[in-house]
Amino acid sequence: MSERNAFKWRHFQADIILLCVRWYLRYALSYRDLEEMMLERGLRVDHTTIYRWVQHYAPELEKRCRPYLKVTNDSWRVDETYIKVKKQWVYLFRAVDTQGNTLDFCFSPTRDAQAAKRFLLKTLAVSHTSSPRVINVDKNAAYPRAFNELKEEGLILEVCELRQVKYLNNLIEQDHRFIKRLTKPGMGFFSDLTTWRTLQGYEIMNMIRKGQVQGVNKGDSPSQAAFITRLFGMVA
């Protein structure tokens, strides 16, 4: 999807679409909340239309942001939390470094060694992460098994250490709260695909909020909004 045709055939202006997508992914709002907020501004936008915008542009936002992420450090904190999909609880695997910067994320119906290994592999592969010197996890027995298999396969350096120290993961447990807060207004997800697309948007907006994007500082909301606008080829 090129910058020029990202909003082709849309019935609303690009800046309105990006505003709705950005607000939904950044704040704890429902689609109906945004429908009312737009109506106050004289715009009649159905909540289902905003839903379609989020489903379409959240993954695109993540893809366009990835090349601009700052490199994280080599001390990882890995943990999982719960989200509801199709009225069932599933696991959202997440990882941050010691500065609280998000490394990567994925969701899985299971919490076993296979799921942990899949997540670690995904995190090792993303461009903004450093090869880990230490990976801290909780007491979940799946992580040592996954870690040892990756070491045996030569995918994690031999010098890398796995630590199971619960209090050291307080940092990522605090970080989970931002994502969990965003999932509450929607009362859960209804398919794996919509879950993944929305989570991509939540997580990348969380990275932007934390100042993980080059040239955009933490807490500088105007610059963050302008950065997203530029990503889509618009003048801020």
UniProtKB/TrEMBL annotation:
One of its GO terms (biological process) is DNA recombination. Pfam families: DDE_Tnp_IS240 (PF13610). Keywords: DNA recombination, DNA-binding, Transposition. One of its GO terms (molecular function) is DNA binding. It comes from the Bacteria. InterPro entries: DDE_dom, Integrase_cat-core, IS_Transposase, RNaseH-like_sf, Transpos_IS6. Residues 63-230 form the Integrase catalytic domain. NCBIfam families: transpos_IS6. This is IS6 family transposase.
